[in-house]
Amino acid sequence: MSAAAFNVDVVIFGGGAAGLWLLDELRRAGYAAVLLEAHALGAGQTIASQGILHGGLKYTLDGLFSPAAEAIREMPQVWRECLAGRRAPELGGVRLRSPHCYLWRTREWMSRLGMLGAKVGLRVKPVKLERAEWPAALAGCAGEVYRLDEQVIEPGSFLETLAQGNAAWLLKVDAERVQLDCGAPGRVASIRIEQGAVGGVCDRDQTRATAGRDGPGQRPLLEGKATTGGRVLDLRPRAVVLTAGRGNAELRQCVGLPAELMQLRPLHMVYVRGTLPPLHGHCTDGARTRVTITSTGDTQGRTVWQVGGQVAEDGVRMAELDLLRHAKAELATVLPGLSLDGLEWSADRIDRAEAATAAGQRPDDAFCRREGNVITAWPTKLVLSPRLARQVRKLLEPPAGDTIELEAALRDWPRPTVAIPPWETERTWRHDH
Questions:
Q1: How far apart, in whole angstroms, are the C-alpha atoms of residue 154 and residue 419?
Q2: pLDDT at residue 226 above 50?
Q3: 55 is a domain residue
Q4: Domain that holds residue 129
Q5: Quick check: 184 pLDDT over 80?
Q6: What's the half-sphere exposure (Cβ side, CA atoms, 13 Å) at 380?
Q7: Is the CA virtual torsion 81, 40, 402, 236 positive or negative?
């Protein structure tokens, strides 16, 4: 089957927060850039995110200004300007769950919070609230409650907004019909994509691809395969950027690079739905975040709480039913007086894909590395996506591709849709545990 061949500046694999933000930035800078997604936009980490645009306070609970806090402290203002339409990408259409978060409890330690933000140089500092300003969910709490002006976004709405602005450059691909031709490890000469039946061949949070490793002149893997009569697109990229989350490991192997650059840190998130007051915030206990709660609504009009923090970290070692019992006990402790009767509970395991660190801890910053013409990238946190895009830009040559013919060729290709939030997928919900 003959293929239409196009020289492009950048091909991006993976349409989560990092890939979409990068695509938008590159398109605005004049790059001929295309993003390939094998499942749904944001599937895996982004759609399951709690949507908090962190300003670094959670990384300074020990009173020290950590490298992680330094990397992240400018990000809330970048997002705030984008969400207000004052900065590109224009994200004014993104649904805001809340303009701020709350911090509450425990013990005498909270009295330190008022000075902590100023002491460690954070841009977003906690503000002590009068009791009349407390949210209803915290009415029974003792001690003090603080407001932290970290916005909380709806991840699905964010993905939709970025996708709408870049729809012409998003391609839904069948990972079994993608061939990466490499002349040497980390050197992608072409990406051959067959347009045909799509979907159903990948895990929800993993991009798969096939790649030859025999160098130039290898037999194309598409030869001899049954086709649906679709076209074949031959992209010849100057650079390839991997932003596929945990799928980066397999993609690196496809281009002859080691997968060990990646680590996975699992979470076991809890979802609670029913008649609940809205709440977005952190209950802190010493130098740890005991629980982090964010709220949204489902398609049936119920409030859904996403419960993370230490509960989700500890839950990795627990079976689902044990985790749900533990989460209910923790919520009863940190939200005294709030009725938890008549609610439904569920849980989901999520892997945080990141650059590997020596001790397996969270990286302090977004990460990108160029090897040949392949750049591997992880944002580490949703809020660091703009910072990652800037880092990747520094590793690219100036744009040189022509987009006019390419845009016409892509007009009839399938487009990926936004992933469904975990609480809207088929899952077991428990009433009593």
A1: 13
A2: no
A3: no
A4: 97-151+264-352
A5: yes
A6: 20
A7: positive
